[in-house]
Amino acid sequence: MANKIMQTNIEKNVMRRIFLIRMLRYVFSGFTVGCFVLVVALFGLGREVWVARIFQNTPANLADLPRFYIAAFDHTRLTVQALILLTIASFIYLARAIVRIFSTAFFNSLRVSP
After folding, report:
1. How far is CA 94 from the centre of its chain?
2. What is the pLDDT at residue 110?
3. How many whole angstroms separate alpha carbon 36 and alpha carbon 30?
4. What is the pLDDT of residue 7?
5. Residue 95 is part of which domain span?
6. Does residue 101 lie within any of the structural domains?
7. Beta strands in the chain (DSSP E)
8. How many helices (H) and strands (E) in the chain?
9. Which of 1, 28, 78, 106 has an alpha carbon within 20 to 30 A of 45's alpha carbon?
10. What is the CA radius of gyration of the chain?
11. Which of these, 83, 74, 88, 94, lies nearest to 33 by C-alpha position?
């Protein structure tokens, strides 16, 4: 009887640790870190730049938009430039991760069971 109780306590401890490891794996996954970096970068951009003024100053002509945004990027501080690049990089990483998640889910659903 004592052996069964001890075995269940050991099993509980092992299963608790396995659960913790699995949860930490999801918490510190690349997708979660990418989301966190994106949110922090966007928050930093909101604190450093008056975003409403940028949208007010955008030209009405669509052909002038790339030149406007390049000039705006060129005439900002290094901090803002780094935050913009970090935002773009994390957005691209998250888009790639989402495509990979959906593509593996799609291909796994097509797999035929024997």
Report:
1. 5
2. 63
3. 10
4. 63
5. 30-107
6. yes
7. none
8. 5, 0
9. 28
10. 24
11. 94
Contact 93, 35 (CB under 8 A): no
86: closest CA among 33, 28, 50, 25? 33
- Measured CA to CA, the distance from residue 69 to residue 108 in angstroms comes to 42
pLDDT in tens, 19-64: 888 877 777 788 888 999 999 999 999 999 998 898 899 999 999 9
Angle separating helix axes 78-110 and 30-48, nearest 10 degrees: 150
Which class for 34: exposed (0-12), middle (13-18), buried (19 or more C-beta within 10 A)?
buried
The four Cα atoms 89, 91, 93, 95 give a dihedral, to 10 degrees, of: -150
Q: Are 37 and 86 in contact (CB under 8 A)?
A: yes
Token pair, residue 4, equals: 């069964």
72 found inside a domain:
yes
Tally of domains within the chain: 1
Structural contact between residues 93 and 34, judged by C-beta atoms closer than 8 angstroms? yes
